[in-house]
Amino acid sequence: MRGLANAPMARYLVSRLGTTVLIIFGSMLVLFSLSAIVPGDPATTLLGPQATPEYAAQFIEKMGLNLPIHERLFLFFGNVLTGNLGEDVITGRRVTDMVLAALPYTVALTIAAIGLAVLVGVPLGIYAARNQGSKLDTLLAFTSVAFIAIPGFVVAILLLVIFAIWLPWFPVLGAGDANSIVDQVYRMILPATALAIGWVGMIARLVRTSLLEVLGSDFIRTSRAYGLPERKIVYKYALKNAAIPTVAVLGMGIGRLLGGAVLVEIIFSRPGLGRLVLDAISTRNFPVLQGVVLVVVLLFTLTNLVVDLSYTALDPRIRRGMARTRGAT
Amino acid sequence: MSRVLRSIVARPSGAFALIVVVTICAMSFLAPVIDLQLPNKINVTQRFELPSAAHWLGTDHLGRDLFSRLMHGTTVAMSVALSAIAIALTLGTILGIIAAESPARWERPILIIFDVIASFPSLVLALAFIAVLGPGLWNVAIIIAITLVPHFGRVARAQVLSVREQPYIEAEHILGASRSRIALMHTLPNIMGPLVILASMDIPVVIAIEAGLSFIGLGVRPPLASWGTLIYDGFAYINQSTVPVIVSCVALGVATLGFTLLGEALRDAIDPRMRPAT
After folding, report:
1. Domain CATH code at residue B25
2. ipTM exceeding 0.85, yes/no
3. Is B249 on the interface with A (CB under 8 A)?
4. Measured between alpha carbons, how far is B266 from B3 in angstroms, rounded to an integer?
5. Could you report the per-residue pLDDT of A2-13, keeping only the tens digit for each?
6. Which of A34, A226, B111, B153 is the most exposed place for a label (fewest CB within 10 A)?
7. Taking CB atoms and an 8 Å cutoff, what residues of chain A touch B235?
8. How far apart, in whole angstroms, are the C-alpha atoms of residue A180 and residue A178?
């Protein structure tokens, strides 16, 4: 990376990486404290009142619940750092394996939703910006708010009722035949649409406003004065500059998207982290819950880091600005 | 105040939002008082009835009147939303002011705590806490409040940092006012505007999180009716009737839309500068 050559950039990189590590450690600490503040006797809470005293004692021994709290903390951090997220309280399976098995479904759904949102949202935003005040622009102004405001899981249920029950166009449940890509994609259409709809509105609005802002700037006026074709100005120069805020917002929105994916997966009975979490909660399987939450936080933090660094590297103004206003926040 | 109101009503979306919000508030206050048809009264001979004069929105899988259950849902949604936001606003503002006014060794830890909390997707953090503490109205409100604290805290801090440089604050310093007096009497009133707007815009977010948690059984306990539990009940019996699930989904959708539009109208009326720059 060329940006590394200047000292403020390097300093920014180091401090950004440091913050990321701190955040990850902090969230591990939060998750550990959660298991430590379980009200009452942890074995009864985790196993339920039906557990025999022998089993409870064995469980306490196995989970290390009898150790002093600082030893448990070290144990927890040591385990997590070596990729061991503990064991399923009921089946004894490794939580790491369970999470790794469920993760691809959730990641695929999230990526499909983002892809869909960008594919629909960006052209809508460009159209609205180029035809300011047109019918579509006005319609978009209202519908985008509606799409952003209405919770994704409500959209998911309504889509399911309309397109899978009233009009039996789509299958209702599951992720489909593991060997058939076509079937899997087919079954992903409704859930991905449900997740994407809010983002279509948000991206369209963002692209519209940032494009309008860029189109009003001096360098676009200069390009027009040079007689460059309008298409080239909009698509080659303006859009590139308007993309930066969109990327930033998408990066920050990954967390909301993952949270939404959990609910959407439950509604469409798809395997994935959502189902894993729900099962873990209903069976009081705390290690599984802890593992899933930790992985989601990790995904979220790392995506944010990548997005932050990439648009810092992409936008020369941010790089230069850093050299000038370093220290100010 | 009347200027703000007039500018909200001037737009069709603002007028729509105001009607929705006023209706919801009225319903949430009236629900415990009037109780037309007891929301938990079971009548198995009248399961899945379609909307009629006796049951305005029909009945659910246990023959309970959906309209009175929805009304009770508004009370739950509003109590969770208002208490969560009150807690988050208070805590966030205090922490934000402390972060801005104290030396770096105090500021850093506060900002890192904000970052850690914000690094959890709110629904996931709420999920983790509630799985441990157990479901319930107050647990839900407190946990949602915690997830929102960084949101208010960061804005409060940024506001303090910009207000601090104003001449009238400097004048207070020169006049010998104490730091706590300046913070309480001068900084606080001047940073509240954006925070209140932020609070109004967070109401639909809280309503959605509460409904989501109740939908997966981690929010309000049955038989108490929340919009999320109504959607869950309707969804569980979707093969027998789609009316309950659609009624409750539409109610939640209209409510979140109404509050979002009102928040935006309020922001544009009070402080147009807060419109997102991008």
Report:
1. 1.10.3720.10
2. no
3. yes
4. 11
5. 444 567 777 878
6. A226
7. 157, 267
8. 6
